[in-house]
Design goal:
Elements (H helix, E strand, L loop, with lengths): L2 H28 L5 H22 L8 H25 L5 H8 L2 H13 L6 H18 L11 H20 L8 H24 L8 H28 L1 H6 L1 H16 L6 H18 L36
Helix pairs in contact: 1-9, 1-11, 2-8, 2-9, 3-7, 3-8, 4-6, 4-7, 5-7, 6-11, 6-12, 8-9, 11-12
Length: 325
Amino acid sequence: MNSAILRTELPLLGLLALLWGASYLFIKVAVAEIPPVTLIAFRVLGAAVFLLLIMRGRAETLPRDLRTWRMLLLQAVFNSIGAWTVLAWGQQYVDAGLASVLNSTSPIFVLLITAFVTRHETLGGRKLAGAALGIVGVILIVGVDALRGLGHQVAGQIACLVGAALYAGAAIYGNRFGHIGAVATATGTMIWASMVLVPLALVLERPWTLSPGFMAIGAAVVLSVACTGVALLIYFRLVRTLGSMGVASQSYLRAGIGVILGMAFLDESFSFPVGLGLVAAIAGVVLINWPRPRSKPRPFVEATGAGGEASKRNPVISNGAGGGT
């Protein structure tokens, strides 16, 4: 990757972290009137519809081969169905600060899996230092006291780590979808997630009996379209341009975004350790994504979509030439 591409991809990485960081705020508003399984089902179904409309507007089609759909199912388990389920369960038993730290370990899992299993990316001292600096930044942001909960409610903490590991698996496995492009990949995963979660919500929570207010519905729509649909378009682009470690590094920024949103909307205070943590988290992300010296440019090459034509439109939702997540 060259510095010119870095100037476009790092802002997109920040936008992805903003969308996913803000999702906690919208979940908090919506879940007050919409039960959790129904909310998640609405989130993925709305995202699937939004992404299908994007595909129709771009004259693209979904893949037709069974092998790709099996791959999309596994990606959906990594990135939504499995990760969201274990995190939702684990966070019931773990304090919010400690959960933020545990959820931010995805880049470390990517590093370990890459080093010892897949070896699909080049790792070096800079990425290792960035991963360490990023997690230190998150700890400073949420407060060192959050670590005092380690060893208590172990099952919940393990669930949070499993969720982070699943996100890491998604960042790695997502490299395998270069043959269908970012929009089709995002759409396929949300279709699978809808097929699993919508029936579950219908059985468990009978959503037709609910009467949520305007604020809850609005929060659910934003969560579905922006924090899921748009976010996944950016995510699958960045998997192709920044790689697994790069796209996973956005988890270091989410805690800082949570603090900023808390200051803006919840009158939360700002402190020196939080500021230092923000600097450390940003520095960690930059180190992970900084181009290697003398490396050849790795431009964002558009892949031919499932419909047979490469798209030349909005770069955020362009089809990418994949490597191997």
